[in-house]
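Researcher: Sequence recovery benchmark, item below. Answer with residues only.
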């Protein structure tokens, strides 16, 4: 006759092995998409003249992107993800500040044109 006294321990061992196997499969993938997103954000910011209008932010974004790429290559995924997300955010900020500066310059140009037109109308009207 065989005994089933050790059967619960066998079930516990199987359950533990299953949990460990599932945990091993649930690892987070490397942050390659985050780094790619940061690269695109830096490129977009450069495309709207952030080097001229938001120099500090775009330079910080580039430095963080380089840090993310270095960390990714070294297998430091958490550091790479954090640096890439920060780089993307700073690049987006640089792009927004650049677009704002361009809009402000255009607004100032239009206001100057309006002032000139008003002056001409007063001269012509007298």
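Model:
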């Amino acid at each position: 006759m065989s005994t089933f006294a050790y059967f619960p321990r066998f079930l516990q061992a199987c359950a533990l092995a299953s949990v460990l196997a599932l945990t091993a499969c649930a690892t987070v993938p490397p942050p390659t998409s985050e780094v790619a997103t940061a690269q695109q954000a830096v490129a977009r910011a450069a495309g709207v003249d952030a080097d001229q209008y938001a120099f500090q932010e775009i330079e910080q974004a580039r430095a963080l992107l380089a840090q993310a790429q270095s960390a990714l290559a070294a297998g430091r995924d958490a550091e790479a993800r954090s640096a890439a997300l920060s780089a993307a955010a700073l690049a987006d900020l640089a792009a927004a500040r650049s677009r704002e500066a361009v809009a402000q310059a255009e607004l100032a140009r239009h206001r100057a044109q309006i002032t000139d037109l008003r002056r001409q109308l007063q001269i012509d009207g007298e």
